[in-house]
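Support reply, case 0932

Customer input (verbatim):
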Amino acid sequence: MSPTLRAAFWMIGSIVSFTLMAVAGREVSNSLDTFEIMFFRSLTGLCIMFVVITATGAWSNITSKHWKLHGVRNLAHFTGQNLWFYAITVLPLAQVFAFEFTTPIWVILLSPLLLGERITRVGVAAAVLGFFGVLIVARPDPTEISPGLVAAASCAIAFALTAILTRKLTQTETIATILFYLTVTQLVFGLISAGFDGDIAIPRGIAVFWVVGIGCAGLLAHFCLTTALSLAPANIVMPIDFARLPTIAIVGMVLYRETIDIWVFVGAIIIFGANYMNITLQNRNRTASA
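Our regenerated output:
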């Protein structure tokens, strides 16, 4: 199996994990703010990472050579994730994911500047076509710009920077190192932000289940995403994430009675078509040049 197809399968795991994290984030939002969610999510992730790294004897693989790059990458992700958690509490899930999916556009635009990756016509066409599908689903009204819409749109830029820096780190760092620094730095960021007012809410009852779920799903999502980015360039991997949109639209309809209409499915068909074109043609080009 080619690296591109293997990356696509890892992205399926990422899609499922991010969907579960969105549901858990909305469920716990009544008792915790976004900073507290990020703090307890990172605490859960760090506990899991400590056990896994110890069990596999991977501590020797954890290096500090690029700690500054890790810091910038994880600050971008922390910012984007907080904006995302806020947006899913005030907007329909499908709309949040739709705006988030401008991320591949930013990845394609920024990758040549930060990674030196070549922009391909297939990648650009897939991203533009996928974004057109996103607009069909979201159909944003420019006369009604709310804080939730701004947050949903802004998180995409932060996530694009995260993806690009992740790709850069995978060239020299192990996945264990990337995930370890992700959990540690975001635990610190979350503690500072959540404790700034001197009051950190402690999850109780069912909220504990949701917080642990967010931590597990978030860590698994990043493991899948990081693995995918280690197998293929960012401007190929990230458009695959468009498949999250129809998935979360159905979840929002079933769990929260959010409206879903024919345009969601029209947009989803266009998005899937763009991803199919991107994966198939990029894989064909790689095979032909091998």
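We compared this against your earlier run and they match. Two observations from our side: Residues 3-289 form one domain. The two ends are 14 Å apart (CA to CA). Please reopen the case if you see a mismatch on your end.
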